[in-house]
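Loading example: each entry is read as two labelled lines plus one structure line.
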Amino acid sequence: MDDFKLDRRLESDSDAVMRTGLCELRLSKDARWPWLILVPRRADITEIFELTPLDQVMLTFETDMVASALKKITGATKINIGALGNIVRQLHVHVIARFDGDANWPNPVWGFGKAEPYVADKRDAFIETLREALSS
Amino acid sequence: MDDFKLDRRLESDSDAVMRTGLCELRLSKDARWPWLILVPRRADITEIFELTPLDQVMLTFETDMVASALKKITGATKINIGALGNIVRQLHVHVIARFDGDANWPNPVWGFGKAEPYVADKRDAFIETLREALSS
């Protein structure tokens, strides 16, 4: 666990929100969708099935917690959850709020178009709302 | 559980492989990628966080079992796991074997191009190999 080091691309493409039990929770810098990323603090893990069973259960419950908070605060049509890792191999789980008619709806967000930056105030307010939802 | 009825689109787009503890395991009819789908046998569930905690753990372990078997029998570069449901709302989890240079690599499979049908013999052989891997 001490050997864990966040992948550089994940670090540059997202902002820290909080640490959950197993994971670092981060917000994608792409403002087109409310897009969270959970990164288990385990070194050299690429696939979910490489985690211990206990870590898998932790990841499941942390994903659950984040997905239901995201649904609640955004009123999303659908939450999209994905662990792809075709580009960044460090295990990370995407939790994204999707809305009927959003960019690339109903297709996936990954690999679509160009990221749009957040306005800093809006990003900070969203992170604050999210932290509150996760601690209530 | 008795009220569960497989969504018609999932039924027409995939073939039955086996029943796992919680889920129906199915093979997508799109031969471009080895593409499995787990459908929890629970009525009226759209999001993973709507499942009970026990069912979430079951789904996690069945996904783990299927993903590691798929990796083993295909030698995939990366397993992609996703629960999107933007089109078909009945909860289902995709487990897909991806290869460097495959159709749409490194982007997602969903919404890309047109499905290519399996040759029946090849599909049956793959299902057989998968069943064996899952029971060993």
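The interface with chain B takes residues 46-49, 53, 56-57, 59-61, 63-64, 67-68, 71, 77-87, 89, 98, 104-108, 110-111 of chain A (CB under 8 Å).
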